[in-house]
Design a protein that fits this description.
Layout (H helix, E strand, L loop, with lengths): L1 H21 L1 H23 L31 H37 L1 H15 L3 H12 L3 H27 L3 H8 L4 H9 L4 H24 L11 H8 L8 H28 L1 H13 L1
């Protein structure tokens, strides 16, 4: 049974990689994300200027060869700050979604596998979190814990935990009735082994898709929190905070808000393009439709 689960996961992974190579939009999104990772990791070394180098003599200069993204109200290089802020967005997205993935998948596994009173208690707790608007709940958590990068990651992770819990539970309810799971139960395999070796590999596809899409929304949430002053604190750069700082210079220095906004737009778009491609490949219904189209062509 474990070999069946491993073959299923490997086959899904191969199909996903093949789709990314042959889908122009997904390939474009992958290239953008690769560049974003490079900038996020090496932004401090690649940046042409220091992120907090103040020079009032060159403040609010428009884009030029010396400053491709212009300078802000303190004469700081906008390009350098946008590049370094990419690390913050990636860090918040990866850590917060990682928290939501680990906690949500664990809760969904136990709820879907054991059902009964445990399922009712866990899912009702998730329903309570679902009742709050995403940003409002994140703001409430940050207000209690205090603003900052770590708090923002925890808040966003808590906000997106119910999504992973529900996706996991739905998959477990379907897989737990399969023949190979019943066979594992009949030979005396432990519940944890069954969930780890047989259930999880067979519900990995929707979790992979949900992860890619949640990364985009997590970056948007971080930008919103930073815009409200509840995320990364000055003088450290963050795309949302840069948008907030540039709102008072829209007419005289459009570049202050345009370039951070463009960075958010391209990052979220890239994650969505990759997520849509993964969904088309890993969703059995989408796969059946695509195969039927090829057969009739």
């Amino acid at each position: 049974m474990s070999e069946h689960s491993e073959r299923t996961s490997e086959g899904q992974l191969r199909r996903a990689l093949s789709a990314l190579r042959h889908d122009p939009l997904a390939l474009t999104g992958s290239v953008v994300l690769t560049l974003l990772v490079v900038v996020g990791v090496a932004g401090a070394w690649l940046a042409p200027s220091g992120i907090n180098e103040v020079d009032v003599d060159r403040m609010l200069q428009p884009p030029s060869w010396s400053h491709p993204f212009g300078t802000d109200e303190l004469g700081r290089d906008v390009l350098s700050r946008v590049m370094v802020a990419a690390r913050v967005s990636l860090q918040v997205g990866l850590v917060s979604v990682g928290i939501a993935l680990v906690v949500g998948v664990s809760l969904g596994l136990f709820a879907g596998y054991y059902r009964g009173w445990l399922d009712n208690v866990l899912m009702r707790c998730m329903d309570v979190l679902f009742a709050f608007p995403v940003l409002l709940l994140a703001v409430a958590i940050v207000a209690v814990l205090g603003p900052g990068l770590v708090t923002a990651m925890v808040a966003i992770g808590v906000v997106y935990t119910p999504i992973f819990a529900r996706v996991t539970r739905a998959g477990v309810l379907s897989v737990r009735e399969q023949v190979f799971v019943r066979a594992a139960v009949s030979i005396g395999a432990s519940d944890l082994r069954i969930m780890r070796r047989h259930v999880l590999p067979n519900i990995a596809a929707p979790l992979i898709v949900q992860t890619s899409l949640s990364l985009a929304f997590a970056i948007l949430s971080e930008a919103a929190l930073s815009f409200l002053g509840l995320g990364v604190q000055p003088p450290d750069p963050a795309w949302g905070r840069m948008l907030y700082d540039g709102r008072g210079f829209v007419t005289e220095a459009w570049w202050l808000g345009f370039f951070p906004g463009a960075a958010i737009f391209l990052t979220v778009l890239a994650f969505n393009l990759v997520g849509d491609a993964l969904r088309d490949v890993l969703d059995p219904r989408q796969l059946t439709v695509s195969e039927a189209r090829r057969s009739t062509a």
